[in-house]
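Sharing a chain and its predicted structure for anyone who wants a worked example. Both blocks are below, sequence first, tokens second.
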Amino acid sequence: MSLENLRSSLARRTEALREFERDDPEAVAVNTATLIKLNELKPTSAIIIIGYIPIDAVRFSVNLKCRQPGTIALHLNPRLDRGYVVRNSKVKGCWEEEETCSPTSSRGYIFRRNSYFHLTIFCTLNEFQIAIDGEHFCAFAYRLPLQDIIGLEFNDDVEETRVRQTQIMVYPDPKICKANRILELRDDKPLDKNLEVPLVADLPKGLTFGASIVMKGRLKLLPHSFFINLQKGNMVYPHPIIALHINPRYHYGNAPSCLVMNSWNNGIWGDEEKQFGQCWTPGREFCLTIRCEYDSFRILLSDKMIGEFRHRMQPSIIDSLRITGDLVLYEMSITY
């Protein structure tokens, strides 16, 4: 590299570091050419990773490796050249079924060249929860026992990597990494910016009988599912009480699409209620309304009722809204 190119590279990194607001002073620099040994993982364990993505990066991966040769419990693989993230596992040298998503932020793809990132991998009872820059964006169910994991491995285009292992009781933990995006859904002004999914929006006035939440957006072209939770609290862990869980599911082949509705209380899901014969169209725009009536939630799509869910708890406990999955949001509003 010429002296001029070196100076240019250092200037870009300096600027990227100046823009990075989520540093972790307790994280320790690691050698990415070798396996980083981990203490035994268990529920509430968290791995914090800070890294730099160079300007010419194509992709990189973070692997939680197991003691068995050729076995990876979690393979997290941002592919910058394609704009999506792959999650997978490998057993004795054979890859299993991939899970993918295309996380975005107000600045585009969430993993950006010439930028630093803050990654949290949090262990629950049955899955990894993964947060980028303080915001949760995906989960990955365990396919291998946590106790089999012995180390952390990095591959390809990631530099200046620092790591620490800790325990947290709340996820995402704002004391470790505070998210930039804090949304509040108020009746005096609709939300029409920073609505990248997944998202959480606080409801400062809560939810009362007669209130309506309206969402305008578009389904992705090949949707699998998405969900909307009306819940108490805005954390992912411990699991919040959910008064209403709306989960349209799209299946291909012989299985029909359906709308699943449920609630979570006392540590368990209730009985699912399903409505078949949906009119959600992949790739098309939609207007969804959730009305809080005295006896139930009524769910309307373009003014046509597609579901009704009788209250299993008082709607007054609801103070936040969580949305994740295969949709793009344009606007949200609430009326009382």
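Comments welcome. The helical segments are 3-19.
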